[in-house]
Amino acid sequence: MYRRVIRPLLFSLDEEQSHALSEYVLHAPFVWKGFGIQSKIGATSLSTTVAGVKLPSPIGLAAGYDKNCRVLKSLIDLGFGFVCGGTVTLAERSGNPPRRMVRLAESSAILNSLGFPGQGLGRILPRAARLGRYRSRVFVSISGSIEDEIAECYRQFAPLVAGIELNISSPNTVGLRVFHDPARLRALVEQLRKIGDSRTPLLVKLPPWSHEADERRVALALAETAVNAGADGLVIANTIPVEDSRLKVGKGGLSGSPLLDNTERMTAEVAALVGRHASVVSCGGISRADDVWRMFAAGASAVQLYTAMVYEGPALPSRLSRGLLELMEVAGARTLSDISGPPPY
Ligand SMILES: Cc1cc2nc3c(=O)[nH]c(=O)nc-3n(C[C@H](O)[C@H](O)[C@H](O)COP(=O)(O)O)c2cc1C
To answer: Residue 79, by phi and psi: left (phi above 0), alpha (psi -120 to 50) or beta?
Structure first.
C-alpha cells in the first residue's frame, strides 16, 4: 500500500513538502497505534538497554525526523522502541537556504543540507514536558557551537526525557567542527556531566569515518575521549559529508542505503574499543531485519534509522521487529545479546 499508493503521492511533492505532509498526518495520535500493534513490542527477547535506559525494542528513530518534537508520541506508537527528537538548538534557526533536501531514489538515499532549522529550545520544551508515559522512550538531540548554549539545552531537557544525544557531527553546521578537537569535546562532555544530578544518560553522536588509517585513528580517539569524559553511549554515526551542486549551498550529508557497510564496520571498531564501558547505537543505512542483526553481531545495543522510513513507510519499525524475531528464532537466539555471526538467511 505505502509503496504503490502513498509513496508515489509523497514523492510527487518536493522533499520538504512531503516531509511536512507526513508530519501533519502524524498529528492524529490514535491512527498510528494500528502499526505498532504488529511490532511485537513487549516480546522480552527484543528488550535492550542503551546507556542504562531499558527499551522494549532496539529499533529507534534517528534525530532529524521530528526536529521540533511535535509528533514523538505518534512515532513511538508506530512501533519504534525509542525515538530521538531534535536536533534542538538554544535559539530558533531558519537553517540553510533551499534546495536543501534531495531524494536519490535509485539508491534509497537522501542528500540534505538543512543546517538545523528549528523553533529553538523555548518553544520545544513545553512539548517535551507533556510526554507523560512516553518519556522513558524519548531521547532529545541537542547542539550548538557554543558550550554554554549546549549546556542550557541539556539543563532544561534532562529532567524531561530518558536521555540526551549530543550532536557534534552534522556536516551542515560549520561551528560544530570545533568539537572534533578531543580537548574541546572532553571539556564539553565534562561540563554537561556536572549539570544537575547528571543522572540523565548522555549519548554522543559522532561523524562517520572511512577505513583509511589516519582518519580511523582520529575518529576512534574522539570516541574514546567522549566515553572517558563521561558519555554513556555513542551513536555511530551521522551523515557522510558530500559535495553536490543540486544543494543550494553545494554540500551536505548523504544518508540511506549506501552507508550500511560503513556503519557495520564503524560499529565493530568502536564496540571493540569502548563497548565494555559504553553503549553503541548503530545508525546509517539500516532498512532490513538482517541489517539490524549485522549491527548487533558487530557489537551494537540498538539501532536508529531515518532514511528508510521515507522509502519504506510507517510499517517499517514493526516489520523490522518481526523480521528480527524471526531471524532470532531460526538461529536459536533467545536474547539480543545471543546474536553473533552472519544472519541465518
Ligand atoms: C533530512 C535529514 C535531516 C537530519 N537531521 C539531523 C539532525 O537534526 N540531527 C542529527 O543528529 N542527525 C540528523 N540527520 C542524520 C540522521 O539522524 C542519521 O544519522 C543519518 O540519516 C543516517 O541514518 P539513515 O541512513 O538511517 O538515514 C538527518 C538526516 C536526514 C536525512
So the answer is: left
Computed on alpha carbons and rounded to an integer, the radius of gyration of the chain in Å comes to 18
Angstrom distance (rounded) from CA 193 to CA 196: 8
Q: Where are the domains of the chain?
A: 2-338
Report the alpha-carbon distance of residue 203 to residue 266 in Å, rounded: 16
Closest CA to 263 of 225, 226, 306: 306
Mean pLDDT in residue range 121-134: 97
pLDDT exceeds 80 at position 33: no
Instruction: Determine how many CB atoms are found less than 10 A away from the CB of residue 236.
Output: 34
Q: What distance in angstroms lies between residue 3's CA and the mean position of ligand 1's atoms?
A: 22
d(CA 154, CA 196): 10
Q: What is the pLDDT of residues 83-96, one digit of tens each?
A: 999 999 999 999 99
Residue 84: phi and psi, rounded to 5, are -120, 115
pLDDT in tens, 295-313: 999 999 999 999 999 999 9
Q: Is the dihedral of CA 229, 232, 235, 236 positive or negative?
A: positive
Query: Residue 187 pLDDT > 80, yes or no?
Result: yes
Report the separation in Å between the CA atom of 238 and the middle of ligand 1, taken as the mean of its atom positions. Answer: 6
Task: Report pLDDT for 34.
Answer: 72
Tell me if 62 CB under 6 Å of ligand 1. yes
Name the amino acid, one letter, at 129: A
Specify the residue with its C-alpha closest to ligand 1, atom 2: 64
State which ligand 1 atom lies nearest to the alpha carbon of 237.
Answer: 19
* pLDDT at residue number 35: 74
Calculate the average pLDDT of the chain: 94
Question: Model confidence at 236, in pLDDT bands (50, 70, 90)?
Answer: very high
Judged by DSSP in three states, 84 sits in strand
How far is residue 26 from each of residues 20, 32, 161, 170, 294, measured CA to CA in Å? 10, 8, 20, 25, 30
User: Which architecture characterizes domain 2-338 according to CATH?
Assistant: Alpha-Beta Barrel (3.20)
Q: Which of these, 203, 192, 261, lies nearest to 232 by C-alpha position?
A: 203
